[in-house]
Amino acid sequence: MGFYDSIDISATGLSAERLQMDVIANNIANASTTRTAAGGPFKRQLVIFSEKQDPNATSESEAGPDGVSSTAGSSAGVEATGIVQDQSPDRLVFDPGNPDADARGYVHYPNVEVVKEMVDMMTASRAYEANVTAIQETRTMGNAALNLLRS
Amino acid sequence: MAEISGLSFGSTIDTLGNSLVGASMQNEQIANNIANANTPGFHRSSVSFKDALAAAVDGPATDPDTLPMTADDDRQFGMMTGPVPFDPKPVTDDQMKMRADGSNVDVDREMAELSSNSGYQQTMAQLLQTQYTRLREAITEQPK
């Protein structure tokens, strides 16, 4: 365990939240896209976050005698394990004159709700800031320890 | 890992050094909790290093309602009541589900703990620095 492992952990949080921001930006940019390479309208995308396990960790993560499970330092931050499509139905708009309208005159627009994306964007932004603050505190602690050399 | 000893200049320096190690481990766990703030189903973890620190100084915590089992002869066995090595372990907090996605990370709480842990670590570092200064004064016979 090095002192700066904390910064590595916070950095995984930064990159995961940044990926989240990229995907949200893509969703907002494509909020009205009716044609995609796969055919049909654009589908809203979601990032799946999962806890990252330390590959170097020993397998001590069984439950201890007192019933609390010990992670034994096996945590290594967060990782985005995938980007999946939101399978909720498309937004239908009645517009018979549109070249993308179906037989009944409805245009299939993406299932992106811009307001929802804005809320997700604020969540990601605040989480990013929290990780930045964690890095700053870790730096402060490291400096306090390094200053021992000056005594 | 969790041990700063070697030349023993008294137990204060060892204890302060252990407290720095514990604060560093706690900081790592808090950083991990914050990084996983948006991970569904994540359970926060923390290090109760202050208990481990107390056990390293005073011996393991005992139930106040029970009498300690002591030995007054080499041929008797007593329960271990002396100081134990400082070895804090991170534990997962499975209690208190508070969010709809199954996670129990409260970012406000984590930020508060991050701040207080950092303050604690800096205080301990300052105290350790004072100890080293005193040690130097004793060695060089030149008070600062």
Notable traits:
heterodimer; A: 151 residues; alpha+beta; two-stranded antiparallel ribbon; two-stranded antiparallel sheet; 2 helices; 4 strands; 38% helix; B: 144 residues; mainly alpha; 2 strands; 48% helix; flat; disordered N terminus
Description:
Chain A has 151 residues and is of the alpha+beta class. Chain A has one domain. Chain A is 38% helix and 19% strand. Chain A has helices spanning 5-29, 114-146, and strands spanning 45-53, 75-85, 91-94, 106-109. Chain A has a two-stranded antiparallel ribbon with strand order 1-2. In chain A, α1 runs antiparallel to α2 (114-146). The longest helix of chain A has 33 residues, at 114-146. Chain A is elongated and about 80 Å long. The model of chain A is unreliable at 59-72 (pLDDT under 50). Chain B has 144 residues and is mainly alpha-helical. Chain B has one domain (1-6, 14-58, 84-133). Helices cover 48% and strands 4% of the residues of chain B. Chain B has three helices and two strands. Chain B has helices spanning 11-35, 49-58, 107-140, and strands at residues 45-47, 90-92. In chain B, strands 1-2 form a two-stranded antiparallel ribbon. Chain B is flat, with a radius of gyration of 20 Å. The chains are: A alpha+beta (151), B mainly alpha (144). The interface between A and B is large, with 45 and 41 residues.
